[in-house]
Amino acid sequence: MGSVSSRGHRAEAQVVMMGLDSAGKTTLLYRLKGYQLVETLPTVGFNVEPLEEPGHVSLTLWDVGGQSQLRASWKDHLEGTDILVYVLDSTDEARLPEAVAELREVLDDPSVASVPLLVLANKQEVPQALSLPEIRDRLGLQGFLGRSWDLRACSALTGAGLPEALESLRSLLKSCSLCMAR
Predict the structure, then answer these.
(1) Contact (Cβ atoms closer than 8 angstroms) between residue 46 and residue 17
(2) What's the structural domain count of the chain?
(3) pLDDT recorded at residue 58
(4) Which residues are annotated as a binding site for GTP?
(5) 67 is catalytic
(6) Per the domain annotation, does 125 fall within a domain?
(7) Fewest Cβ atoms closer than 10 Å to its Cβ: which of 69, 111, 146, 152?
(8) For residue 180, is it within any domain?
(9) Which domain range does residue 122 map to?
(10) Domain CATH code at residue 51
(11) Which residues form the lipid moiety-binding region (N-myristoyl glycine)?
(12) Would residue 179 count as lying in a domain?
């Protein structure tokens, strides 16, 4: 993977999406690409898609499989990451401790020490979904001193919150002077 770089007049950034299985990473990936809702299967390995919009940094989105047997390889995808997106199933309160533990393990990796974090609280269309303040507190996001982060509500199913998530991603990228200097 690369990092933010300039090729001619274009800048590119590597975005890695991680999260537990069934959090909605692949559906989010294809919705961000502008596709209508697509049926997905559990990701074995990873999916990679470019996201280019005129006037913006070109993004390469890496959707890394979240099944427990694949998580050991997550660290293999971190080198050269410019933004880490952690997708959380807001309706799966039973697996929240597991999601928190996996996120902390990823963030402990030295290769992402200064990489901004965007947490996408997916499945917000479900009435029982955890609220953003509850997710923020349970993930301990306020304790991530020295790291730029944002938390956004979204729904891969309906597309709600995805434009705001993309804008947040771009804002985090712009604010990351270390990323731009790489």
Answers:
(1) no
(2) 1
(3) 86
(4) 19-26, 63-67, 122-125
(5) yes
(6) yes
(7) 146
(8) no
(9) 5-174
(10) 3.40.50.300
(11) 2
(12) no
